Amino acid sequence: MVGEVRVPLKNPEFGPFVQRVKDAKPEAVFVFVPAGELAIGFMKSYNERGLAKAGIKLISTGDVTDDGVIEAFGDSALGVNLDPPLLDGA
Predict the structure, then answer these.
(1) Which residues are CB-neighbours of 84 under 8 A, at least 6 positions away?
(2) Percent of the chain clearing pLDDT 90 (strictly above)
(3) Which backbone phi and psi does 80 adopt, to 5 degrees?
């Protein structure tokens, strides 16, 4: 583990936080945010800051890609590793 970043949940602007992750150059980043506006905001920043192109994999729980927001991600969700809670122990 390289580090930990906590963001205010009332702030859907993840750019500065995602940039800190990119600057740390980890192999992957694990994100846990509620589905909806926050998940969309994170995915937008993840793509805008070029983390995928930098080789930084995104790992998240399955609730981030709730059916209500998956279409808003577009191609930004491609390559994301998910652990859907309903599949645990299956």
Answers:
(1) 61, 62, 63
(2) 17
(3) -80, 130
Structure tokens at 48: 């805008």
**H helices within 4-85, ranges in order?**
15-24, 37-48, 70-73
**And the tokens for 45?**
């920043």
**What secondary structure letter does DSSP report for 54?**
T
Beta carbons within 8 Å of 38's beta carbon, 6+ residues apart = 9, 12
Structure confidence by residue, pLDDT tens digits, 48-69: 899 988 999 888 877 666 666 7
Q: Residue 28 is which amino acid?
A: A
Residue 76: both structure tokens together = 């930004």
Residue 20: band (very low, low, confident or very high) from pLDDT cuts 50, 70, 90: very high
